[in-house]
Amino acid sequence: MxxxxxxxxSGIQVLTWDEDAEQYVEEEVRSVLFALRCNCHIDSGVxxxxxxxxxxxxxxxxxxLQAWSHCxxxxxxxxxxxxxxxxxxxxxxxxxxxxxxxNEHGASNQVRVRGVGEPGEFGCTHYGIDMTPVNxxxxxxxxxxxxMEISRDSTKxxxxxxxxxxxxxxxxxxxxxxxxxxxxxxxxxxxxxxxAVRDIKEGRAELTRVELPKNKVQ
Length: 218
Hints:
The protein is an alpha/beta fold. The chain has helices at 48-56, 59-68, 73-80, 166-177, 183-201, and strands spanning 4-8, 11-18, 23-26, 39-42, 93-103, 106-120, 123-127, 142-144, 147-152, 155-161. It has one domain.
């Protein structure tokens, strides 16, 4: 059984602890699927495009992720290979983080994928990537946030060191990029949103006023 996995510039590396050598050594496995529950590390400088190419090298892994994340994996890989007319410039890297929150209704432990911009007065700005063509962000490095944010009733109260499995990382990446379907469906949704925003700005939209309870912050 493998002990951990590294996502590298050259692919997916599966490692096992060698007691005699007292170090991790690369292990040959029949399938990377055997390592899905292993701890995952992303090497410095590894980009979203590098991860796509790593998955492409393992047909069974790509098919699994297609079913697991309800994602047309090949369509996004093909899009990532296209030249980017406008590479994304608003954020510097893609972050994978873990968040734990609980309230009176229960608890949730979520893995999130977001773009992260430069730090400002109120911290770093975060961006969703679910409507962004992947060829615009394939060049961006992907990083794991080493500390989990712990919240109660959506208010942060602490942080704790955390780990990610290979399934946490890959499953959430493909789930996020395909949230609005395949690239064509995503672009149709983005166009509808842009048209709705134009209608609001130009006064053509029919707006409904919503009155919030007085005890709520507006």
